[in-house]
Amino acid sequence: MTTPNVAASRRFTLTGRTANLLVIAVLVGLIVVLALGFRRDPRDIRTAVVGKEAPAFRLERLEGTGTVALEELRGKVVVVNFFASWCVPCREEHPALVRAWERYRTSDVVLVGILFQDSVESGRDFVRRLGGTWPTVVDDRGRTALGFGVFGPPETFFIGRDGVIEGRHIGPIDEDTLVRGIETLRRKPS
Amino acid sequence: MSIGWADIGAGALRAALLFALGGIVAAAFAARYRDVRGLRSARWCALVAFALVVLADAAMIGALVTHDFRLAYVAGNNARETPLFYSVISLWAALEGSILLWTLVLAGATTFVAWRGTRALPRLATTALGILFAMLAFFLLLVTTPAADPFVASPFVPENGRGPNPLLQNNPLMALHPPLLYLGYVLFSVPFAYAIASLILGEGGDRWLVATRRYALVSWALLGSGIVAGAWWSYAVLGWGGYWAWDPVENAAIMPWLTATAYLHSVMVEEKRRLLRTWNLALVIATFALTILGTFLTRSGIVNSVHAFSLSAIGPLLLGYLVAILVVSCGLMLWRSRELADHGSLGAPLSREAIFLFQNVLFVAATVTVLLGTLYPLIAEALGGVQLSIGAPYFDRVQVPIGLALLFLMGVGPQLPWHGASRATLERQFAAPALAAAAGAALALGSGMRGAAPVLTYALAAFVAATVVQEVVRGVRARRVLHGEPAAHALAALFRRSGRRYGGYVVHLGIALIAVAIAASQAGAVEVERTLSPGGAMRVGQHEIRLDALSEVQEPQRRRVIADLWVAGPGGETRLSPSFAFYPNATQPVGSPGISAGPADDVYAILAAYDARGKAWATIRVRVIPLVSWLWVGGLVIGVGAVIAALPPPRRREVHLPAIAAEAAAGAE
Amino acid sequence: MTPARIAILIAFAGVLVAVAAAARPAPAGPEERVERIVAELRCPVCQGLSVADSPSVSAREMRDLVVQRVAEGRTDEAIREEFRRSYGDWVFLAPPTQGAGTLMWLLPIALVAAGAGLAWGRARSRAEAAEHDPAPADVQALRARVAREEAADL
């Protein structure tokens, strides 16, 4: 009478209790992961470039008057801002950039605007209408944006005197954040 | 102050909540004390709650149609220029509205069970009704808390609203896809409620399963149609030439469909062999939990990508609901585990029930993999703090082998008898399908298909189709011999009398069509991109495409730039007009493809870029995608099969055995 | 050997040959290499679409960069590394085949193997099946009981 049972037990089986414990453990794990998900903001992409050397670029100025190269700005604190005329938040943050530029333009701080996925005409139009006298350049087929790991404008990078990216801000930036970022880098011994 | 849409809607929902709570009490009373008055009250509670929810949905539609921007939902999802049709379907264009629609469907299902379901097996059905009322109460609670209240007032009344999401007001398929999905999701509450009721009552049998078989089938079919409609919408609207991206939203829909498919097959094992009771309960619970998990994942905003909507406060509530469902279900199953033990054991590895079990294993493995892939970025971040992505390359590589194995079992299963098959049976059953498989593989090679997976897909699809044809031919032949019917008559009788079986075969045929469509469209698509001046032409595969003009049109709610294309190919000539649409509230334009669908291939054209100033050039990207329309046809075939399977068969006794029928009638008096 | 068995064997061999013929790896030219790389790169502005599938400008720029790098003669791994440097592992749509990512690839195999093992464990030989099925009389009795219970309900 017991033969079939013996045969069955020799095969791969899972006893009731083990199976129950396994299922419950998996479900608890699932719930914990989901609950932990609330602490996470899916828009907060930690960036890979912070702490690395900023990718070199030499780009045409928007006005067509020569080029700007990152190497030539070595020794200065550089703020790189990606913008586009079609981007509404860029318009929102623009006054903050203007004020920060007024504050630092005579110091060892350079602000560079990089036009992102936009036509030169629209970019010029944008700068002419909203003001701003810091150097603005046109990206070359998105190469610089890809090097910086840009998702979409506006994005702002803080580069130290040694050419290392020390900070990044995704989305429209305000004056406080700009000043704080710049001051941190200025105080840092090179 | 006059009464507005918001007052009507909010009032109706709060009143409906009271009736749902009343329904829980009435149903519990009726089930506990077997009291007919309790059941009668529960029925009326359901009907009144349903009517109130209908009123709330109608109020929301009224507010949308009359552009009442005093409501935050209307201000955020509607504008004065929005056409009437899109105003109406904006009901499910955003979170709060879609939960309102969900509540409506759930109230409808509850009412149906209250009035129709309780006629048979009243005690089980009344208990299930109480559970449905509890679920309805939860959703009514949800739509009356600030987190998801669709009738919240705007902080200020704007001159004009933001208008619906441009992607959602671009195509009428949007009217079809979400309601189908919601119907599918919500109808699965009924089998779940019966399963839980059966556990509470400690029945241990399969009565809950037989009573809700049709709900499960209809829910499965609606969910499947919703998925196919969603794929079609994605194909026709999003402009990337594909139809499935393994996006979290898509994954949320496919997971319950996979477990429901497993369930529809394993119920047969329980019905025929009274086995797998625990397993079937687990599948029903898993399917239902996955519908809630899917809603949670897509509504809470925790798995979206960069440019996602904001986190919703509804997330913790839905997670709490999910936890409650899992705790109650698992607790009940552990409590009743003794009653659920199987008696008897499974057939040989080559028996129909064993194939069903292997098929179940594959479906569950597919579901777990999709779930894990969807959640992996979350897990990686929670455990290691790293940000990772999981997308099509992973899912394709894992799911294609599983899919091929399932296709194989789909051909094998129906050909095997219950308990086990002899070698002679196997040979008789599989000779013709095996030859068909070889022909399918040859056809794939002949049509220039490359890669092992597509060729194997063709072979297996031919294998499945041959098994279906063989089954139908044998059935017809048997009827002709037994009843002397003509072939056409015998065929019709087969589908009418054994709808479940032959409807199932039709579904298999639809799946085979879809498998071929996926293989061909993934492996055989050709894409060419050219920048053309008006008059310029390009060649893609056997099709010639010419840009005739680039024009601009101003419509009330948008501005469109349209490329006028002339397309000529083996199927004749046609015109396509891919376009860019500019909506006032959107920063980026929305591209719409121009599609010329054909039985052999689709020409899929998109306007990739254009000269905004002088309209002197346009960059056109054209993808020729073979057999992609077979996907939609396959979806339709599956729908037809499901209807055949769901239709109740005619009462056999009256037709075949009049004497017994008369006896039964006499006995009933 | 019966004719049916011969037909099955020939058909099986035919399918195998066809699949093997189709599976011959195509020569990996520059275009195939580009396709292979962009299929696994995530488009930064999309909801989980790959660079190969996305019609967005960003995706086009990434593809152009890949095309250029392939033309310059860089290895696939070097090109991937360039994107990893700026976007991190986030930019790849498939988990890596080493480290913790291996688990993601092994899990489906483990699941199917364990499930199939369990199912096989429950299935028995035909002889056992015949021995253990309830006798027809028992089935009759069970059916009668079910009918009684249903009638007694409520």
Essential attributes:
heterotrimer, B: 669 residues, alpha+beta, 6-stranded antiparallel sheet, 4-stranded antiparallel sheet, 21 helices, globular, disordered C terminus, C: 154 residues, mainly alpha, 7 helices, 68% helix, 0% strand, extended
Helix content of chain A: 40-55%
Structural class of the secondary structure composition of chain A? alpha/beta
Can you count the helices of chain C? 7
Helix content of chain C: 55-70%
Task: Supply the helix-strand structural class of chain C.
Answer: mainly alpha
> What multimeric state do the chains show?
heterotrimer
Sheet-strand content of chain A, in percent, reads: 15-25%
Q: In sequence order, what are the helices and strands of chain A, one letter per element?
A: HHEEEHEHEHEEH
Largest interface, chains and sizes: B-C, 83 and 69 residues
Strand order of the largest sheet of chain A: 5-4-3-6-7
Tally of contiguous helical segments of chain A: 6
Average pLDDT number of chain A: 85
Q: How much beta of chain C, percentage-wise?
A: under 5%
Query: What is the straight-line distance between the termini of chain A?
Result: 86 Å
Strand/helix succession of chain C: HHHHHHH
| Unreliable runs of chain C | none
Using only C-alpha atoms, the radius of gyration of chain A works out to: 26 Å
- Dominant shape of chain A: elongated
Instruction: Show unreliable segments of chain A.
Output: 1-12
How would you characterize the overall build of this protein?
The complex is a heterotrimer of chains A (190), B (669) and C (154). Chain A is α/β, with parallel strands linked by helices and 190 residues long. In chain A, 40% of the residues lie in helices and 18% in strands. Chain A has helices at 3-10, 16-36, 88-104, 120-130, 143-148, 175-187, and strands at 58-60, 67-69, 77-83, 109-115, 136-138, 155-159, 165-170. The longest helix of chain A is centred in the first third of the chain and has 21 residues, at 16-36. In chain B, strands 2, 3, 4, 5, 6 and 7 form a 6-stranded antiparallel beta sheet that branches. In chain B, strands 1-10-9-8 form a 4-stranded antiparallel beta sheet, covered by helices on one side. Chain C is an all-alpha fold. Chain C has helices at 3-23, 30-39, 57-71, 76-87, 101-122, 126-132, 136-152. Chain C starts with a helix and ends with a helix. The chains are: A alpha/beta (190), B alpha+beta (669), C mainly alpha (154). Chains in contact: A-B, A-C, B-C. Chain A binds chain B through residues 8, 16, 20, 23-24, 27, 30-31, 33-38, 40-43, 45-46, 86-88, 119, 151-152, and chain B through 293, 296, 300-308, 311, 315-316, 319, 322-323, 326, 330, 334, 337, 345, 375, 378-379, 381-382, 387, 587-588, 612.
